[in-house]
Amino acid sequence: MKAATATAADLPHSKAIAEPGRASYWREVGRRLLRDRVAMVCLSVLALMALAMIFAPLLSPYDPLQGSMVRRLKPVGTPGHWLGTDELGRDMFARLIFGGRLSWFVGITPVAVAFVIGSGLGITAGFFGGWVNMMIMRTTDVFYAFPSVLLAVAISGALGPGIDNAIIAMTMVFIPMMIRVSESVTASTRNLDYVEAARSTGASAFTVVRVHVLPNVLGPIFVYATTLVSVSMILASGLSFIGLGVKPPQPEWGLMLNTLRTAIYTQPLLATLPGISIFVTSICFNLASDGLRGAMDVRA
Amino acid sequence: MIFYIIRRILYAIPIALAVSLVCFMLVHIAPGDPIDAILPPDASAETVAMVRKDYGLDKPLPVQFGLWLGHVVQGDFGLSLANRRPVLNELKVAAGRTFLLASTAAVLGFVIGCVLGGVAGVFRGSLADRMAVGFAVAGISVPHYWLGMVFVIIFSVVLGWLPAIGAGPGEWAWNWLHIRHLILPAVTLSVIPAGLVTRTVRGVVLEILSQDFVTTLRGKGLRSLMLAVHVIKNAAPTSIAVMGLQLGYLMGGSILVETVFAWPGTGMLLNQAIFQRDIPVLQGTTLVLAMIFVTLNLAVDLVQTALDPRMRRA
User: Fold this and answer.
1) ipTM attached to this prediction
2) B271, B127 Cβ separation under 8 angstroms
3) Are residues B293 and A145, on separate chains, in Cβ contact within 8 Å?
């Protein structure tokens, strides 16, 4: 194990930029990730959840939107409804696996969009420096002057409830974070000898970025983006929890948690199920991204 | 040092202006005519005409921003659409309640985080270390609005020890009748800073313990108690900075916990404003909370500079 990593990892300055463009580097990252037991357990849990959501119609005979007045708030373990039923008599298991689709969608999309826009702007700022850098980074500072939850609530509150508005608001929260990280990683590669060399041989800025900068910075930026997914999942469900984001009767974990609040006196276990789903998802994303960061050996 | 302080304060001014610009824009990103966003639907034609003129709604946006800023600086955040009262009155009471909740949570989180992080750092690799690290990850990953519900189920529904909602009758007072209302929301809210501080303190302690001067001190036969003083002195600036920022985040982020516990602070105010589409309240509350955050950021930077001479050169 030591011998395999020695080539890349023991060279000075190779920790953050261990020739990540090479296929052998990624093979090594994969190997290290496979050996990380915590990360692998978390990834398996996430994969299982994803499969359950994809095959939701096959796993549950019930319609997540179809309620029944006679079957309201059945406890966990009821025959036929093994996770019980909610306040409108809808099957809890069906709502949880269908609800996961929306929770994951609203949680992951803002990070993905912010990854594209934020790293684009951040790399531009970091590579070109000067007034381009100043314009982008000072604008970023303004959004950093808001506590993130407040910014998301304020924007989606002004735009009004709805999935699209929640995604826009959260993307606005994550873009500045992505910009900051991509800017600092890019700025640190700018003065590397081979980037300098490529520039002095007359390569265009676009070529230098594409060939020399991108392969070095995309890894760390991606790792940082994965750490945001957990935050994003909690925030997404939180927005639905306070009535922004997903609207009823659509199943979504945060919204379900809110509507089941009235049931905490009669069916406490049932009422906490959507929250447990959010918690498990978020902790798994968190630990998996920790594992990825460890395997890639980046300090972001 | 004095130059650094002046420069840092001057830098906060454009930030504060830009933050108010973002808050100003909230009315304009709301769908429909801004006048519908800041006046109740049944406002008389004269009121509409007056407000339109007063805020220059027929003029270009930069002029509007200037007029609006003039009102805001004098404490005029407009009237709430829901109850027609000045936004500022409600905001003052609510901000006080949120500050009470957030600062209690921040202190709790800081103490828990320092103890866990310190123990974890000193006894690296031990069971205590692993438990502290686990707690830190859980604290950061937990949806705290759900944790609040779980606390309500355990301590209010099952055990009946603490009230589930509200902040107690009437004005806040430091007696058991009121404090018992504060316990559950404050503990719920403290979980996030506790997790973050645990992580930070652990990292800082590990770093300090690995430094040469600590080895030297140990070599000179310094006992662990004295060593602790050195570690604390070095760990303090970072920990205090993290905590100061967390207080700001908690003030702005308490909306979810306040919703769970019906705590009558800014979060509840925001929640009602969203529910009733009361944009002036949403705007005013956002602006005040963001300004508090900017001020806290500034204060943290200045305190950190005072505590850590190395920062002054940066």
Assistant:
1) 0.86
2) no
3) yes
Please name each of the domains of chain B with its CATH number. Answer: 2-73 (no CATH), 92-311 (1.10.3720.10)
Chain B nearest CA to A226, separation (Å): 13
Q: Could B270 and A157 be called an inter-chain contact, meaning their C-beta atoms sit closer than 8 Å? A: yes
Q: What is the DSSP string of A250-289?
A: S--HHHHHHHGGGGTTT-HHHHHHHHHHHHHHHHHHHHHH
* Contact call for A265 and B274, based on CB within 8 A: no
Look at the block and give the residue holding tokens 């828990």: B112
User: Which residues from A are below 8 Å from B when comparing CB atoms?
Assistant: 138, 141-143, 145-150, 153-155, 157-160, 230, 234, 237-238, 241-244, 254, 257, 261, 264-265, 268, 271-272, 274-276, 278-279, 282-283, 285-287, 290
CB B81 within 8 A of CB B40: yes
Which of B25, B159, B274, B288 has the highest number of chain A CBs within 10 A, making it the mutation to test binding with A? B274
pLDDT of residue A107: 93
Q: Would you call A97 exposed, middle or buried from its count of C-beta atoms within 10 A (0-12, 13-18, 19+)? A: buried
Q: How confident is the model at residue A3 (pLDDT cuts 50, 70, 90)?
A: very low
Q: Which chain B residues are within 8 Å of A147, Cβ to Cβ?
A: 248-249, 251-253, 289-290, 293
SS3 A146: coil
Cα A76 to Cα A85: distance, rounded to the nearest angstrom = 8
| Chain segment A277-294, per-residue pLDDT in tens | 999 999 999 999 988 888
Q: Identify the sign of the CA torsion A6, A11, A16, A19.
A: negative
Interval A165-224: pLDDT, tens: 999 999 999 999 999 999 998 988 887 888 888 878 888 888 888 888 888 888 889 989
A&B contacts, CB < 8 Å = 143
The neighbouring-strand residues paired with A81 are A78
Q: What's the pLDDT at A56?
A: 81
CB contact under 8 A, A149 and B252: yes
- Mean pLDDT, residues A83-95: 80
* Minimum-distance CB partner of B141 among A155, A268, A282: A282
Residue of A nearest to B13 (CA): A142
Lookup: tokens for A68:
């029944």
Q: Do A146 and B22 touch (CB under 8 A)?
A: yes
pLDDT at residue A240 in the model: 92
Residue with tokens 């910009």: A179
The number of beta carbons lying within 10 Å of the beta carbon of residue B43 is 18
Lowest pLDDT segment from A231-235, A275-279, B95-99, B163-167: B163-167
Q: What is the mean pLDDT of residues B195-210?
A: 86
